[in-house]
């Protein structure tokens, strides 16, 4: 992966904030938001720039690594619950002989499982930043 100069400067600029010395995952999140701001600015999407700037200010003012980890773990727990509900629904439709519904629900289940895997990867990434 090639790191561009503007991305590197955004990361270094964010990392220079002394209040964030104990919150490297928050530093990373802020750098990601800055990356999105730069992209939106390059493409003339000022409405998105304003929203992302508000998000960046919010992260800079309130972000704590422990909260990021807790929130991601909660998202994972909720996704796991959704998957279990989907599995139960599939079993119900299968017992009713509704194969057309079963196929649709199985596709949704696959998407839910892919989203869970993505959330788990994001959690691992956040954990890697907090253990450095």
TrEMBL record:
Pfam families given in the database record: DUF1090
Signal peptide limits: 1-21
Record bears the keyword Coiled coil: yes
Alphabetical UniProt keywords: Coiled coil, Signal
InterPro entries for this protein: DUF1090 (IPR009468)
Coiled coil regions in record: 66-129
Name used for this protein in its record: DUF1090 domain-containing protein
Species, as recorded: Alcaligenes pakistanensis
